[in-house]
Amino acid sequence: MSEAATPYALLGGDAGVRRLVDRFYDLMDLEPVLAPLRALHPQDLSGSRDKLHWFLSGWLGGPDLYQQRFGHPRLRARHLPYPIGSAERDQWMACMIRAMEEEGVDDALAQRLTQAFMGTADWMRNRPD
């Protein structure tokens, strides 16, 4: 895949990824249906926003900003303290899908990302339903 064809580039690079992350967390703060997901996060979301932005940058094919700061993401290990089941996975996915829609992510790219996000979100589950 050429650098120009990475999801990172197709989203608009660093600024596009940041807009997507910011919209994701804005929605989490605004939508009452996402309150259980929001409750798993700190009161101040600025650190969460930065970490997701840095992680997605590398995950989407751009600079490995997260790894440069913290080393390997160890996603599952870092999320083990939080109870994540199918409901939390589904809320996270609904929030990200809506953020992609509202940010005008191309439909084909959004479908690819939804599949990839779902694989990761499902892997993050750490409690039975």
TrEMBL record:
One GO MF term: oxygen carrier activity
Superkingdom of the organism of origin: Bacteria
Stored Pfam families: Bac_globin
SUPFAM superfamilies assigned to the protein according to its UniProt record, in alphabetical order: Globin-like
InterPro entries attached to this UniProt entry: GlbO/GLB3-like, Globin-like_sf, Globin/Proto, Hemoglobin_trunc
Alphabetical UniProt keywords: Heme, Iron, Metal-binding, Transport
Entry similarity comment: Belongs to the truncated hemoglobin family. Group II subfamily.
Name this polypeptide is given: Cyanoglobin
Organism per entry: Rubrivivax albus
